[in-house]
């Protein structure tokens, strides 16, 4: 038997919030089932926003039992059956926090769907229910959500049955060697050729826009190095560049575009990534000989085995996604850095991911979305130290030594494990003495003050001892241990470069806590110039394309970060004139923008504006906190008037929000942050007037806590004027230009700082290049 369960709660914080409903369905694979549902009196008033989401009212729970009164019934109903649910750890962790400790195996349908149904646009329960035609009647109600997860579980089982029989047998054999709980279910499943394998819905083919077509023509300029600013960067732009570019052109794309572009062998257009992103079949065969796998290792292997049946190239980056833990094993099954993909030499043009390194014969290098390339490079070149990651290879080696009855290596490995625990105890002490209390995600940047502390000196000594002690493993090298010893060697190198000999002129080092409260030490490169020079040193012509490059500073920001000559020319394309002519740009003069004390004015204006206009508005809030405050304050009230307010925090992922919006745009509005708006593709909308209003809460300055931006800011002698203000201006331009690519309407900036602050003149000039702004008071728009 299995139990699919779901909770409804008064909020997301398991420590502070309470359970309002428990729903579960117990079932087997033969069709036997029973249900259990109960409201639970939380002992507190249910927030209006939660009632808005779940339709559970204070009246519903007033006479309901308290949790302790139904706790035994819940535990008895679940029994020892495996627990199924969508993101099930949220529910089980919540129950644990309330005193119900469940030791049952957990089968997360979101994770299982990612493994056995790759390539879907979203893995939210609502979107999966829609794609797979699962009846999901009352979303955000416990019993119905648990039934939807049960039906999704059945769909996943069907997809496993639909696998090629030989592939299913191999997956069963490999998973039997793992600690993955779901392996027990896998062993019982038999192949069924009557079940059709699910195919993700095809993406609709889009035509290239006129502005992007102009950008394509601009890449043919004779300049050795040039910049092109264009409002949008799409898959169609990448494919058009590949089709029309000269021989030996390399086009580097961000991942979302790279995943969608199609190679064209007839026109000798190849789709390539770094060789480390391709499967090496001999190395994969070696991996499969391992005697045991932990959970992320086996799920990563199964994803790879399933994908190999669908790919001609062996490129893992096509449709398959891995968690951070799953990625740890990939380096043992991919090609080495010196093994180029086979299509490389035959191709006229290469569409590459950012990870691809152009070859010596490259004539023209085009980088799509240059600002995103900077962000991606910083992230890929950063390093992370985690206790769990550090212990993983040592524990695997210890398991081998124990199995093989090797006392000396076992003794050394146990000593290494003890020293690692001491090391992280010291690092925890350093972190706790520097983290600020009550920070949502605590972090601090390493400085000379911390490196001069006694705990830091002790940590350095422990690392030196780890390196010395590891020499005793030189006789513990064999086919089984080499992968783990290689991982351990890499970890020791990261420790040495981060703790023993940190170079803070090249890297910023941050101590952080992640969402699971683990200590994370992150090393971030300050400059991407060394990497950019390495990939472009043999290239005759370079073109960088971005959605927003000129901050009224002659592109100084982007030129500095890439190390480009000051005289590098900029070419610009603009949104369609017909759209701009039908658009009004307003600056509201009686709202001061980002100040917390005037947020209520923004909320009140938004409520009145949306009430009057009903739907087709997007509201850009400059922080998650302000977005949550606005959504919590307005969504329940607007719902009573038949108006929907969709939020990236409260309504799901971008794909889910878009699908919900498109189902009823006349009554729907979206609340989103600038970074999510950046990832939003207006081409996914169906009509020119799908959006009619864009409300921008404030000048989109970056959050001060972003460690990657803090590292980049060190490239400038005056970070405020040379980095932060230009970035805010570029972000504002990008927000507006994205709206204008398809949508004429009203753009409303609720921030009078653009006309009152000394730094604002470039903002006004930048806005005027798009559309002359009109100064109004908020009541003029109501």
Largest sheet: 7 strands, parallel
State the separation between the terminal residues, measured CA to CA: 58 Å
CATH architecture of the largest domain: 3-Layer(aba) Sandwich
Which class of secondary structure composition applies to the elements? alpha/beta
Helix content: 40-55%
User: pLDDT below 50 for ≥5 consecutive residues: which ranges?
Assistant: none
CATH topology of the largest domain: Rossmann fold
Structure description:
This protein is α/β, with parallel strands linked by helices and 782 residues long. It has 4 domains: 2-162, Nucleotidyltransferase, domain 5, CATH 3.30.420.10; 210-381 and 528-572, 3-Layer(aba) Sandwich (Rossmann fold); 390-521; 577-781, 3-Layer(aba) Sandwich (Rossmann fold), CATH 3.40.50. Helix 17 packs antiparallel against helix 21 (482-500). It starts with a strand and ends in a 6-residue tail after the last strand. The relative contact order is 0.08. The model has no long low-confidence stretch (mean pLDDT 88).
Furnish the topology, listing elements before pairings.
Layout: E1 2-9, E2 19-27, E3 33-39, H1 48-54, H2 58-62, H3 67-78, E4 83-85, H4 88-97, E5 106-108, H5 109-116, H6 125-131, H7 142-161, H8 165-175, H9 183-186, H10 210-218, E6 225-229, H11 235-244, E7 249-253, H12 255-260, E8 269-272, H13 281-287, H14 295-308, H15 324-327, E9 349-353, E10 364-368, H16 370-381, E11 383-386, H17 387-403, H18 407-432, E12 443-445, H19 448-451, H20 454-470, H21 482-500, E13 507-513, E14 519-525, H22 529-536, E15 541-546, H23 556-562, E16 570-572, H24 577-581, E17 584-588, H25 599-613, E18 617-620, H26 624-640, E19 644-647, H27 654-663, E20 668-672, H28 674-679, E21 693-696, H29 707-712, H30 719-740, E22 746-749, H31 753-756, H32 761-770, E23 774-776
Parallel strand pairs: 1-4, 4-5, 6-15, 6-16, 7-9, 7-10, 8-9, 10-15, 17-22, 17-23, 18-20, 18-21, 19-20, 21-22
Antiparallel strand pairs: 1-2, 2-3, 11-14, 12-13, 13-14
Helix pairs in contact: 1-26, 5-7, 8-14, 10-11, 17-18, 17-21, 18-20, 20-21, 25-26
């Amino acid at each position: 038997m299995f139990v699919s369960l779901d909770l409804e709660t008064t909020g997301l914080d398991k420590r502070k919030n309470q359970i309002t409903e428990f729903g579960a369905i117990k079932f087997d694979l033969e069709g036997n089932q029973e249900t259990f549902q109960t409201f639970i009196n939380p002992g507190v008033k249910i927030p209006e926003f939660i009632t808005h989401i779940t339709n559970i009212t204070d009246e519903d729970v007033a006479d309901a039992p308290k949790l302790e009164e139904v706790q035994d019934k819940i535990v008895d109903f679940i029994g020892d059956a495996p627990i199924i649910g969508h993101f099930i750890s949220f529910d089980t962790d919540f129950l644990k926090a309330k005193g119900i400790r469940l030791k049952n195996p957990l089968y997360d349908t979101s994770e299982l769907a990612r493994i056995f149904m790759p390539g879907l646009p979203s893995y939210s329960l609502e979107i999966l229910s829609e794609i797979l035609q699962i009846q999901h009647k009352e979303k955000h109600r416990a019993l119905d959500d648990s039934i939807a997860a049960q039906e999704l579980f059945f769909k996943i089982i069907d997809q496993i049955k639909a696998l090629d029989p030989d592939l299913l047998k191999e997956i069963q054999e490999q998973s039997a060697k793992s600690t993955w709980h779901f392996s027990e279910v896998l062993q019982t499943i038999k192949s069924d050729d009557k079940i059709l394998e699910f195919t993700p819905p095809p993406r609709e083919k889009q035509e290239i826009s006129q502005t992007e077509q102009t950008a394509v023509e601009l890449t043919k300029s004779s300049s050795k190095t040039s910049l092109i600013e264009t409002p949008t960067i799409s898959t169609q732009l990448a494919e058009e560049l590949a089709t029309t570019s000269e021989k030996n052109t390399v086009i580097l794309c961000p991942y979302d575009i790279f995943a969608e572009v199609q190679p064209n062998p007839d026109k000798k257009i190849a789709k390539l990534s770094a060789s480390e992103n391709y499967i090496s079949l001999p190395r994969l065969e070696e991996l499969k000989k391992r005697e045991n796998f932990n959970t992320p290792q086996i799920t990563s292997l199964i994803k790879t085995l399933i994908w190999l049946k669908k790919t001609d190239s062996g490129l893992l980056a096509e449709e398959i996604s891995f968690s951070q833990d799953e990625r740890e094993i990939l380096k043992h099954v991919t090609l080495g850095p010196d093994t180029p993909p086979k299509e490389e030499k035959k191709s006229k043009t290469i569409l590459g991911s950012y990870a691809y390194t152009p070859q010596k014969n490259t004539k023209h290098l085009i980088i799509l979305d240059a600002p995103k390339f900077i962000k991606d490079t910083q992230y890929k070149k950063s390093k992370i130290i985690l206790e769990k990651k550090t212990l993983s290879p040592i524990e695997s080696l210890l398991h081998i030594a124990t199995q093989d009855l090797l006392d000396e290596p076992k003794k050394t490995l146990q000593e290494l494990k003890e020293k690692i625990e001491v090391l992280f105890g010291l690092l925890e002490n350093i972190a706790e003495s520097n983290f600020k209390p009550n920070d949502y995600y605590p972090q601090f940047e390493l400085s000379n003050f911390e490196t001069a502390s006694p705990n830091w000196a002790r940590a350095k000594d422990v690392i030196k001892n780890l390196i010395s002690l590891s020499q005793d493993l030189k006789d513990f090298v064999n086919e089984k241990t080499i992968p783990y010893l290689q991982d351990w060697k890499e970890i020791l190198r990261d420790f040495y470069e981060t703790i023993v000999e940190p170079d803070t002129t090249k890297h910023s080092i941050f101590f952080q806590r992640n969402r699971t409260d683990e200590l994370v030490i992150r090393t971030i490169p300050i400059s991407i110039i060394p990497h950019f020079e390495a990939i472009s040193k043999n290239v005759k012509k370079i073109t960088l394309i971005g959605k927003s490059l000129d901050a009224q500073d002659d592109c100084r920001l982007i030129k500095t970060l890439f190390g480009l000559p000051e005289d590098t020319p900029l070419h610009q394309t603009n949104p369609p004139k017909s759209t701009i002519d039908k658009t009004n740009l307003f600056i509201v003069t009686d709202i001061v923008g980002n100040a917390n004390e005037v947020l209520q004015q923004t909320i009140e204006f938004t409520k009145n504006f949306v009430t009057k206009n009903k739907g087709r508005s997007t509201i850009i809030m400059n922080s998650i906190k302000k977005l949550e405050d606005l959504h919590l304050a307005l969504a329940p009230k607007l719902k009573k008037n038949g108006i929907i307010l969709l939020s990236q925090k409260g309504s799901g992922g971008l794909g889910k929000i878009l699908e919900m919006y498109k189902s009823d745009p006349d009554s729907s509005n979206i609340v989103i942050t600038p970074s999510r708006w950046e990832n939003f593709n207006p081409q996914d909308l169906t009509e020119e007037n799908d959006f009619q209003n864009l409300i921008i809460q404030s000048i989109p300055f970056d959050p001060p806590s972003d460690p990657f931006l803090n590292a980049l800011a060190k490239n400038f002698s005056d970070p405020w004027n040379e980095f932060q203000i230009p970035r805010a201006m570029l972000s504002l331009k990008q927000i507006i230009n994205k709206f204008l690519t398809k949508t004429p309407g009203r753009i409303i900036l609720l921030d009078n700082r653009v006309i009152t602050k000394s730094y604002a003149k470039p903002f006004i000039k930048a806005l005027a290049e798009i559309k002359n702004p009109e100064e109004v008071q908020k009541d003029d728009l109501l």
